[in-house]
Design brief:
Structural class of chain A: mainly alpha
Strand content of chain B: under 5%
Number of domains of chain A: 1
Chains: A mainly alpha, B mainly alpha, C alpha/beta
Distance between the termini of chain A: 55 Å
Largest sheet of chain B: none
Shape of chain A: globular
Number of strands of chain B: 0
Structural class of chain B: mainly alpha
Number of strands of chain A: 2
Oligomer: heterotrimer
Strand order of the largest sheet of chain A: 1-2
Largest interface: A-B, 73 and 77 residues
Order of helices and strands of chain A: HHHHHHHHEEHHHHHHHHHHHHHHH
Distance between the termini of chain B: 61 Å
Helix content of chain B: over 70%
Radius of gyration of chain B: 24 Å
Chain lengths: 504, 254, 327
Amino acid sequence: MDLFANLAHGFVVAFSPVNLLMCLIGALVGTLVGVLPGIGTIATVAMLLPITFGLPPVGALIMLAGIYYGAQYGGSTTSILVNIPGEATSVVTALDGHQMAKQGRAGPALAIAAIGSFFAGCVATILIAVLGAPLTKLALAFGPAEYFSLMVLGLIFAVVLAKGSVLKAIAMIVFGLLLSMVGSDIETGASRMAFNIPELADGLGFATVAMGVFGFAEIIRNLDHGAEMSRDLVQQKITGLMPTRKDLIDSAPAIGRGTVLGSILGILPGGGAVIASFAAYTLEKKLAKNPSRFGRGAIEGVAAPESANNAAAQTSFIPLLTLGIPPNAVMALMVGAMTIHGIVPGPQVMQKQPDLVWGMIASMWIGNLMLVIINLPLVGIWVRLLRVPYRLMFPSIVIFCAIGIYSVNNAPVDVVLAGVFGLVGYWLIKHDFEPAPLLLGMVLGPLMEENLRRALLISRGDWSVFVSRPLSAVLLAIAAGLLVLAVLPTLRAKRDEVFVESEG
Amino acid sequence: MAETMGQTASSTRNTKAAIGIVVLALAPQLFELVWSFGTIIGLGAGRGPAQVLLAHGGALLSAAPNAVFGSVAADAKKGFSSDVLLALIYSYPLFAVAIVTLFVKIRAPQDYIGGIMLLALALLALWASSDLQGMRGFSFGAGTAPWMFGVLLVALGAGIAVMGLFTEGPGLAHYSWRGPLFVCAAIIFFALAIRPLGLVVSAFASFMIAAVGSHETRWVEAIIVGACLTVACALLFPYVLGLPMPMFPRFLIQ
Amino acid sequence: MNWYGRSLASASLALAAVLSAVVAPARAQDYPTRSITMIVPFAAGGPTDVIARIVTGHMAQTLGQSIIIENVVGAGGTTASARAARAANDGYTLITGHMGTHAASVPLYPNLAYHPEKSFEPVGLLAGTPILILARKDFPPKDLKEFVTYVKANAEKVNAAHAGVGSVSHVSCQLLNSILGIEPVGVPFNGTGPAMNALVAGQVDYMCDQIVNAVPQINAGTIKAYAIATPERNPSLPNVPTTAEAGLPAFQAQAWNAIFAPKGTPAPIIAKLNAAAVKALDDETVRKRLLELGSVVPQPADRTPAALGTLVNNEIKKWTPVLKPAG
């Protein structure tokens, strides 16, 4: 009963005209930020923070939250249309989403991403309202050992993602891990592989590498002689804008599973949300009757990770709302926004600031509704963008990416580095190495190394913590199981092919 | 088509591949040499070309061989300069790979060369982290994880290369130069120009430089679109998103 | 291995210099005639950023020009400070430095690209944020005296969390440890959020942190505070004794924030900026907001540029023996 009273109160707060407007602005800006390559949510929330000075605190936070989850909607757009993931969470979407776009199915891909995100957003919002407080225990149960095991599991997911040789995929992950170690060592502060370049002192930014190996490399490759043919083909055969009935039936279970996985992983403050989208992708690929469709334009490969990342974006508010501890950089900014308004979030924020907490929860549902209403009509416009001749498209993408990367840290060196990674990505394409496992290795690398070291520091060098703590042991067991599953198909690949042919 | 090319050419191409790997083995030294010419005209503050030549030449030709064959090898690792370490950790293993390349039959050049380049990257990472501290008792040092993953990548790169010797696979893909050159030029120009020249000038100029990268570009059209895009960016980034960037050249504002 | 970085930096500097050669020198009496950039060496929303925004918001009104905050994150704030040190000394680029960037960085980073005293002109102290000794809620010692005996007896077993090398929590904890003469295992986290999470979850034993993040957790009983390292108790935590009261007077530490200008900025401009900062600190709303953060507003005597210069000098002397160089 209490819950309904609280929710009703929240909706009263969220439906006030000012807050509705803030929610809409947040959703719009979030979509824009997500769509523009390079510009991350962190940079935008940071830039918009001073504007919230003059706003009432509830409205300000509703707007900032809107930017955060709105970017999850927008982020899929560039992944699908031009194969540029703007955030770690949309790397996986690019795999099948861009293939769908190449087959003229950009419309259904974009639409299913929006629909999946909406469903996930609704479920996760209810979850926050109903189970927020008890779920907090999960966030506290995860110590360094558990995070390390989770990241090992994440790396196994990255292997499963690859469509080609497992050996090459593992090599790419390790390459990504090495890249992630550039910068200052967390424990001693020593500079690692930074070649005394001050801008490298904090490591390579995700946006820098992603724009390089995905964005710039893709452009350079498309400028090759002989690449015109396949590009022009894309523009001619654009089919329907909306998903067909079959698409919806195929994606429904994927959306459901993605939502569940994303909701659980999102609660973990130390980077659970990052692996949500590819955990969901891996799950779909493993459950699929015909896993070979993945990476070649399977709609489940878009629906599941997009649902998962939006669910995770919503549930990652749980540690903030129940513990007052920001689980990621964007949330830390929101804490900053609260402190500017004189609200210092803590464990009692739910009791002390019911307007804020329940208003925000209610606004999330409203925001998701707004986002799906904004995004579905946009699908038509985005798809029409694909008809722009490539000779005009590619310099525009270069400029947008360059501005985006520059804006992350106001650092020109980042832009140069992205160019270097563009060449690296071009080289990777030429040698049939996949960039996605590289990026995931890069994202997971620091989380894995830091937690491993933390766990070993706390246990005084005793490696058995990883198996003696039950949660950690379970995660490692799943990882080992998945690895076996990942290696097996390559052994029986021939049998699968025969099977597919006889079916077709 | 590419496959047959790789097939027929593989035996004659081994010398080329070996020479390529030797160049790769000397790439960091050559890079520093090229870079050091900047010091002559006052750009950069590194070593001059003569110093670079002497240091690396000495490291490659005498110091490192001495270290390999000499008796000092036991515990003198700390005493080596970073140039000698570069020769030892990076260049020499690659020289060895180049020699091996001359005598093997490459069945999948794409994998073989790709694997060797990964190997080279891993060796470079091992060199770059060779000055870091290793394990300290039970706790990891700064260099432990880079060392672990560097060694792992050496093994994986070698593994991929070896696979390229035993399984048939595609040949080397064709690289073009125009696209990469002009896209990179546009990016670098943007990076250098954004602070002094502002968003408007650098965005438009970079757009045009990038447009040179395609032979399909029609100039009138590109100028119009470039101008429109620049205006759009100039409104979008600083105003709608509130990102602090210089708009116009610095000398015009003051 | 230096040449990559330096050459790249100087190449872009050279281009910048050539392209902006026609810079008219700013005249001090007209200052400011355009907007001022305030570099904040930490992420938006962090304690330093919040303080900078509160104070500069008021300063902008006094000066009649907007002050644009530019957050430049990296290497414990030293990236931003190095950039500010290189900036034109015309008063249009300032930096909100803190104890880490303008004192503790000297011993921590031997290759620092700037020196807090030689590369900057002090403008004015903005606020001090008290530091607390915190512990997980089920950590055996009940008060600071027991804590001292406990950690000394169990030096092998205790873990101290910190928010990364060079952070306030790291630096202040090193001071505490050196006073106690112990070397506990330091468990590094990426920022105060994760470190606080680990403390609340009981994964680590104690840490030192700024008052801002800790107050709500202490009030909710999820962690406990042994003492506050300032001469006086703090109004937001009236029950927490000072280190002097609790028997460890040697441990005094505050995370201070102050405005600096690049070396050579004309004295009249410094005076104008200092006057604006002082006026902001006297403003009732600014004061109230800073106090809400748990910060301490400096006494009038401590607000002058000269006082800040002395503070920086003393702080460098204080931290140098405590901190070993990183790496």
